[in-house]
Amino acid sequence: MAAIMEAPQNPYLASVWSDLTQRNQHDPLFLQAAHEVMESLEPVLNENPEIARLGVVERLCEPERQVIFRVAWMDDAERVHVNRGYRIGFNSALGPYKGGLRFHPSVTLDTIKFLGFEQIFKNSLTGLPIGGGKGGSDFDPKGKSETEIMRFCQAFMAELFRYLGAMTDVPAGDIGVGGREIGYLFGEYKKLTQRHEMGVLTGKSASLGGSLARKEATGFGTVYFAREMRRAAGEELDSGRAVVSGSGNVALYCIKKLQDLGVTVVACSDSGGTVVDPDGLDFDCLKLLKETERKRLSEYPRFRKRAEFHPGKKPWSVACDYAFPCATQNELDGDDAKQLIANGCKLVAEGANMPCTPEAVSAFKEAGVSFGPAKAVNAGGVAVSALEMRQNASLESWSFNEVDEELQRIMASIHTSCRNFAERYHRPGDYPFGANVAGFVRVAEAVRAYGVT
Ligand SMILES: NC(=O)C1=CN([C@@H]2O[C@H](COP(=O)(O)OP(=O)(O)OC[C@H]3O[C@@H](n4cnc5c(N)ncnc54)[C@H](O)[C@@H]3O)[C@@H](O)[C@H]2O)C=CC1
Ligand SMILES: O=C(O)CCC(=O)C(=O)O
Which of 36, 71, 111, 208 could pair with 204 as two cysteines, CB 3.0-4.6 Å apart? Predict the structure, then answer.
């Protein structure tokens, strides 16, 4: 990775990068995400030297606020555990901090910083009034009882509630946090503040004022974006074979929408391994296993005769036309990319946040594989969260179809912005470049307009 993380050529960006690496020496994920954005900004900065004088890039790279707190909770055997909670308000130029909460044992400040930084540009791309934020904890939900999960959520919110508000900071779900956890968090927030502030969290169940189609939005949006990429190449996304990594919220609804369009999804995974079903995965079976029963994917072959589970394996060696990494960061490396390319993969769209390493992204680019970056591809989730905020503020609830149609419009518009910015700077078809520049230009304009704050 060191060879790829070279300092930018533009003197201003080079000096920002030098400071950034000094100040964030222990945050490799954050530096990876920041470098990826900064290398796209050179032509914009060369054209607009005012951005340097006003320190816009430094301001975007330094979180406005970071909160770290202790979360003490009691398990079912009455033993007390202590976890660490985080919430970063990265940038509020475009609106209240907006971004999910991740509960996973691997979570560190670095994880939340990289995710919060990405969220600034993703949220900007949606065109909606939302700033960038992220939070979470190193709590491991795996193997915990329902009451332990509830007690943890309550303990987490007992500290976090001070920093939230429908116009201040609005969390949602991410890895390990879905509708159930959001319900517990909202219940505790409501109790502590004695306010029914519906717009303070998104991803709520419909019974608590959540938006229909939020659960499906990230996965569906991922496929809508990939469909636009195919259309831009004069093709449709209505046949062929796909592989998807993960089998959580994003992966499941990515699989569902691909199947609805006529694509055969032959493999998906969890942290234990990969399941391959040559006849195409059975969505209902997956949903029952992973969403309802919360079981391991290794149990899937019990329901489908020709399916095989490969413990410890990633799905990237399975031949496919399209690949959708939807699990976690850096899960698809340079060797995986070479294997996908050798097997004829034509398109990769990132449903997860930063799932492809820089080496993998370079390999796709060199091989001419169409590559959709996370901050554009998976923006449908946060976009529908913003629609949930809008519904809550106006005390309305839209039908599933109304939300889904708006999601399709937003994804098409993000796709157009990425292509237009890439063309304007003579990088046609370079989606990562177009996404970074389009996301940056909108937020930079707002940062400038506020003056020095
Ligand atoms: N939930 C949402 O609306 C959004 C999620 N994302 C991103 O999508 C990705 C998946 O998130 P969700 O589906 O919400 O989470 P989830 O908790 O529902 O599912 C996560 C999936 O990833 C797998 N996984 C986690 N760590 C892994 C590892 N180290 N190796 C292999 N598999 C692993 C899990 O087994 C599970 O299948 C994350 O990168 C998240 O940041 C991005 C935008 C919005
Ligand atoms: O819906 C949201 O606010 C957060 C979604 C999210 O965490 C993400 O886009 O990575």
Answer: 208
User: Predicted confidence band at 3 (pLDDT cuts at 50, 70, 90)?
Assistant: very low
State yes or no: pLDDT of 427 exceeds 60: yes
Band of pLDDT at residue 4, cut at 50, 70 and 90? low
ipTM confidence score:
0.98
Sign of torsion over alpha carbons 352, 353, 359, 364: positive
Q: Give how far Cα 37 sits from Cα of 60, 312, 374, 377, Å.
A: 11, 32, 12, 16
Query: What atom in ligand 2 is closest to the CA of residue 214?
Result: 1
The CATH class, in words, for 216-377 is alpha beta
Q: Whose CA is nearest to atom 3 of ligand 1?
A: 381
Kindly give the pairing relationship between strand 241-245 and strand 322-325: parallel
CATH class of domain segment(s) 65-196:
alpha beta
Integer-rounded Cα radius of gyration of the chain: 21
Which of 111, 123, 250 should be mutated for ligand 1, with most atoms under 8 A from CB?
Answer: 250
pLDDT at 107: 98
- Give me the pLDDT at residue 5, please: 82
Q: Where are the domains of the chain?
A: 11-61, 65-196, 216-377
Q: Do domains 65-196 and 216-377 have the same CATH topology?
A: yes
Packing angle, helices 28-47 and 431-449, rounded to 10 = 80
Spatial separation of the C-alpha atoms in residues 111 and 106, rounded to whole Å: 8
- Counting from 1 in the atom list of ligand 2, the atom nearest the Cα of 101 is 7
